[in-house]
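Team,

Forwarding the record for the chain on the shared tracking sheet. I've put the sequence and predicted structure together so nobody has to dig through attachments.
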Amino acid sequence: MEETISLRELMETLKKRISLILFITLTAVIVSGGVSFFLLTPVYQSSTQLLVNQSKTEQPVINQGEIQTNLQLMKTYNVIIKSPAILEKVISELKLDMTTSQLNSKITVASEGDSQVLNLSVQDTDPNKAAEIANKTASVFQNEIPTIMNVNNVSVLAKAEIGENQSPIKPKPLLNIAIAMVVGLMVGVGIAFLLEYLDNTVKTEQEVEKLLGLPVLGSITRIKDQEEKRTSRMQRKSSVRGETVGS
């Protein structure tokens, strides 16, 4: 019985504060949509792939030991690609107006699972510039790795290309709006329950009985303003008629 009453009270609280909850949720959705569509700058991503293979030898058979060595070098290559030795040459050849730290923040290098393929991705507000930086970084790394590591086992597997009507990877307005709707709904419900908790006024006969532990013998009904005006007009009309008949 207590659970039923508790659930009923919760539903009544939500029903009473529904306008506040909807207002907060709608505000969150509008703000999120406005920021996503009009304030945030779209960011595009272009990727190129590098293959780390075994060194060329006269033996046609693939050496498993060399493959394992190449796999172990993947982490080293990840660091070298984003090192100043590579990025400074990229900045110089492309004449980029940025520092190595700024360029480093645009580049992401990751291996494709346990394969010998490195995925080099570049994010920028200009899709053409992102593809250009990705291809140039791969090219510079391929040319410099023989000098740095004294090996020649890196080749470009796929160059970065610009697709037709390329979509930005961020922001994602629909996702942001959905998240804002959920957060706004949660905040609205939380504020509704907080206001209900802070409201210690007595409004119904049931609350009086619950607080005092005494039965309610009677109650005074509150007459609305319109009903009061209607009653006063009817009383005035009745008095006027009475005076007319008496005269």
